[in-house]
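Summary for the steering committee. The consortium agreed at its last meeting that each partner would contribute one worked example illustrating the joint modelling workflow. Our contribution is presented below. We chose a case with several input lines so that the handling of multiple components could be demonstrated. No manual editing was applied between input and output; the record is shown as generated.
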Amino acid sequence: MDVHVADHPLIAHKLTYLRDERTDSPTFRRLAEELVTLLAYEATRDVRVEPFEINTPVAPTTGIKLSNPKPIIVPILRAGLGMLDGMVKLLPSAEVGFLGMIRNEETLEVSTYANRLPDDLTGRQVFILDPMLATGGTLVMAIDYLTAKGARDITAVCLLAAPEGIQHLEEELADSDIPVKVVLGTIDEKLNDKGYIVPGLGDAGDRLYGVV
Ligand SMILES: O=P(O)(O)OC[C@H]1O[C@H](OP(=O)(O)OP(=O)(O)O)[C@H](O)[C@@H]1O
Ligand SMILES: O=c1cc[nH]c(=O)[nH]1
Ligand SMILES: [Mg+2]
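What follows is the complete predicted structure of the assembly.
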């Protein structure tokens, strides 16, 4: 597993306001969108492209375009939806699939309640979006789900991660030959006894969309 932690003052600045409990939902949504756009720069470093010929007003030249099949972006509902627009802005021709997953607040076990994805992901580059990598249970299950459909090129983009979640993911993927890349805004200190990231930002879904 390849873990990349963003090291950029603009990302740290925006994360600070995202974390602040005084930040309201509209501002939180805007910051999540801006942050994913910055992280997408690293996440898409290996996006597949192919050359094609164009003419500038001055001369012919060779440019590049995204190869087919196009990448697929998979936000993990709910909170991952808050990152979708920012990612789609950078990859407008990508397809979008959806995975709805929820963590039981007491047991921290994850269950899948919705999915809308192609049956076959063979040969597709997949970008998973989820702001929080806490215990890692959700991301492990999402990666299992996508690899069962044939995905072999997976990048996860998360705003905050706990060291425990990264370790869990590393252990789960240790015997796998699937090259998963994880791009993170930052790594926080730890998880608390309720499975929340510390200092974190609270419940990302609730802060984006309200408490349900
Ligand atoms: O790493 P984990 O311990 O699995 O936790 C991370 C998950 O928890 C949150 O989702 P939540 O279950 O709160 O659903 P929501 O997005 O609908 O609020 C978050 O968006 C991740 O999907
Ligand atoms: O801190 C956390 C952990 C999991 N999910 C969240 O939304 N926040
Ligand atoms: Mg939540």
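The longest strand covers residues 153-161. The helical segments are 9-19, 25-43, 84-90, 137-148, 163-173, 204-209.
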